[in-house]
Structure formats: C-alpha cells, structure tokens
Design brief:
mainly alpha; 6 helices; 11% strand
Amino acid sequence: MLFLIIFLPFLGFLGGCLFGRFIGKGVIPFTILNIFLPCVFSIFLLFNNFNDNSILVTYLNLWFSCDTLIVSWELLGDNLTFFMTFVVTFISLLVHIYSSEYMGSDPHLTRFLSYLSLFTFFMLILITGANFIQMFVGWEGVGLSSYLLINFWFTRLQANKAAIKAMLFNRVADMLMLLGLFAVFICFE
C-alpha cells in the first residue's frame, strides 16, 4: 500500500503530461483522484499501525553497489512516516482542488496539475526514503518541481527571475546537504 501512496501521484503526473491535450479538463478529476486515494491509504496505514509501532520496509531494487556502499531503493514506513504521508497528501489534495477551481479558465491547467502531482510524488519519495541517497533524490525532485511551478507562466519576466532565484538557493542547499551526506558516510563507514 505504501507503494501505491507514492506512485499514484506519479501516475497523475504522467497522465496529465501524456494525455492532458487529449482529454483536456478530464485531467482534473484524474489528478485529484490520484491524490485522494493516497490520502485515504495513508489514513488507513496511520490508524492500522498506530498502536502497533511496526516498521514497514518495502524493498524495490538494488540501485548501486560500490565497495562498502550498497544503496537500494527501499520504502520505509513507520508511524511518523505514515503521519507525514497523510499531511502531504491531504494538503496536496486541498491544493489540487483549490487550483482546479482558481485556475479553471487557464488554458494550461493540465500542465499545472501535472507539476503539482510531480511535486507530491517527490515529497513522498523524500519522506519515505530508507536511506540518505534516496532522500536526496526526493530533495532534488522537490527542487525541480518547485522550479517548474514557480516558472509556470514562463512568458512573464518576474516568474523567470523568481524561478532562477529559487534554483540558485536550491543549489546552495543541495551543496550543504551533500556535505552533510558525505560527513555521515565518512563518520559512520
């Protein structure tokens, strides 16, 4: 179920990007459904594991192996993770609903909802990462999605400037996070 919580927003992103031109406003219920279902699933997991305090680790695949560093794609679920997935999916659901009404007349609404779904997907990757490398991938994806959302109206000069500023600040934060990851690796190798 944790797998569905994470990858349904990605399905909403793909559906909006690939079929948005063809189905038009039909993307709105599709992307909202792909956020609503993970919200319901996260509530179910949160209440199901509330008293149990069990930790759910879902192994997906080996990513890479280099000497003592073995990194695999795993999804980690505990009470804090389930609570955070509920918070992220619930707020994302509210933002999707609000955006679909507020930007209802915008001709590129499908692209915007796709970017919101991509942001939700990477936020969930960030939350459920079982290792620091996977968390960093989620962090980078959130930065990319933020850039795409800020620069949504790319024909406006102020949107371009704001997106570039956000990307520069993200690069500084990425460098500091990488230094922290390297320090953790060196200290606990």
